[in-house]
Write a structure and sequence with these properties.
Radius of gyration: 24 Å
Number of helices: 18
Structural class: alpha/beta
CATH topology of the largest domain: Rossmann fold
CATH architecture of the largest domain: 3-Layer(aba) Sandwich
Largest sheet: 8 strands, mixed
Oligomer: single chain
Shape: globular
Order of helices and strands: HHHHHHHHEHEEEHEHEHEHEHHEHEHEHE
Strand content: 5-15%
CATH class of the largest domain: Alpha Beta
Distance between the termini: 62 Å
CATH superfamily of the largest domain: Vaccinia Virus protein VP39
Helix content: 40-55%
Number of domains: 4
Number of strands: 12
Length: about 450
């Protein structure tokens, strides 16, 4: 295979996302699988460039518009993405010299055979380098929605929504938090090694780590720039990459040894393996997932973690009542959602979601809850979890379920949750975490008990 420059590969990913709207992680995974010659440094640069442009796209477009003589709509789409990449490097990546960013952009234009645009790109970028400290943004006092949208690079519909729900100060904090580079958080596999021992192993290998504030098995890597797959204990199953908020879910469901548990939307199985860990590998866990590629990765990961109590099943959550004949003691629903609580991890979610999507999702989530209710034994528990901050997908879904299922009630998590988790439980007995407040993914969880 002919070797391509990392900046050209990053440009290719952005062009594909612009044309076809694929999800970023899928695009990057395919790219790295097919370009095996890329080393870790190249992959890191590609990831930084693509994620950076998606994170700051609206602000980058505003900046480009300050120097362009015509509307951005009149700029060739490929040239516009080249300009976005260059502006990201000029305005946000201090380690890349401005001259290098400009020169690489001009070379990219020429490699794409757009020779007639080379002078335009060169002139516009050099003009921005000279005036980078004088960029004017929309007036915050006259049009706060427009200012917040451009300055923090979010669609206006989402800014308006968060302003209405959280107020100016909390909205701005959320927008800023969504643009932060996410922390690398691990969950220690306590059946293999203790947290303190694992942290010491990391220190011995030159990796600084510390316990997380909330999760008892969480570890935060400090200023980590390497690959987690190269850390001590990865191949032997000492840990799983998992944010604190996701770790907390399994503790709230509190699965016990010898119980029968269903993970209704298992995905890659991060929470599933944690359930097995908390059950001391004693009991039965069914991990339901419709996509075979995800199920395959889940099986591989369980093997790495030496998890044997999880039984993967390919199937759709909505059809679950027809797949299983006996009821479960506990059910986890990690519901598909808008992902507005993890924008810092998936910046493409800003542009892949719309207000219309948010109106459609609760119907699917209600269907999943209904399916789970039919499979739960009396006295059993369902934990409903999302990684969104949207009340329509969170509180409203739970309210609707309780109105239509009179044999269920909301568990008093404020009383029953582990002491370390109680600060994260709100006055309505819901788990609610915010990136801007708690420094972790934005999660919601509700525990339901069948009478």
């Amino acid at each position: 295979m002919k070797k391509s420059h990392p900046r050209d590969l990053a440009l290719g990913v952005l062009n594909q996302l612009t044309k076809q709207g694929f999800f970023l992680n899928d695009q990057l995974d395919r790219l790295f699988e097919t370009h095996t010659y890329l080393d870790d440094r190249d992959k890191a640069l590609i990831n930084q460039l693509v994620q950076g442009v998606l994170r700051w796209r609206l602000r980058l477009d505003w900046i480009i518009g300050q120097a362009a003589d015509s509307s951005l709509k009149k700029i060739h789409p490929l040239a516009l993405n080249i300009l976005r990449l260059a502006c990201l490097q000029i305005f946000f990546l201090d380690k890349i010299p401005e001259s290098a960013a400009v020169n690489e952009a001009v070379l990219q234009i020429k490699r794409k055979k757009l020779f007639h645009l080379a002078a335009f790109v060169n002139g516009l970028l050099r003009n921005l380098c000279r005036s980078k400290d004088r960029i004017a943004f929309p007036d915050k006092t006259r049009d706060k929605v427009r200012f917040l949208s451009v300055f923090y690079s979010y669609p206006e519909w989402l800014v308006q929504k968060w302003l209405a729900e959280f107020g100016m100060e909390n909205c701005e904090s959320l927008l800023a938090a969504g643009n932060q580079i996410p922390k690398t958080i691990l969950r220690v596999h306590s059946l293999q090694i203790s947290r303190d021992t694992f942290i010491q192993h990391l220190a011995d290998q030159g990796t600084l780590a510390k316990p997380t504030q909330y999760s008892p098995m969480g570890v935060e890597l400090v200023d980590f720039r390497g690959r987690v797959t190269e850390l001590p204990g990865f191949k032997t199953g000492w840990f799983q990459v998992q944010d604190q908020a996701a770790q907390i879910a399994a503790y709230l469901l509190d699965p016990q040894p010898h119980e029968k548990v269903l993970d209704l939307c298992a995905g890659l199985g991060g929470k599933t393996s944690h359930l097995a860990q908390l059950m001391n590998e004693q009991g039965l866990i069914i991990a339901l997932e419709p996509a075979w590629n995800r199920l395959k990765l889940q099986i591989q990961n369980n093997k790495r973690l030496h998890i044997r109590s999880v039984h993967p099943v390919q199937g759709d959550a909505i059809q679950a009542p027809f797949l299983f004949s006996k009821p479960f003691d506990k059910i986890l629903i990690d519901a598909p959602c808008s992902g507005l609580g993890v924008i810092h991890r998936h910046p493409d979610a800003k542009w892949n979601r719309s207000a219309a999507d948010l109106r459609l999702l609760p119907d699917f989530q209600n269907t999943f809850l209904h399916a789970a209710g039919a499979l739960l034994r009396p006295g059993g528990k369902i934990l409903y979890v999302t990684c969104t901050l949207n009340p329509e997908e969170n509180e409203r879904v739970i309210e609707h379920f309780l109105k239509t299922h009179k044999d269920f009630q909301l568990a008093p998590l404020k009383q029953t949750a582990p002491d370390w988790a109680k600060p994260l439980i709100n006055e309505n007995d819901f788990l609610q975490t915010f990136p801007s407040i708690h420094g972790m993914d934005g999660f919601f969880a509700a525990l339901l008990i069948r009478e």
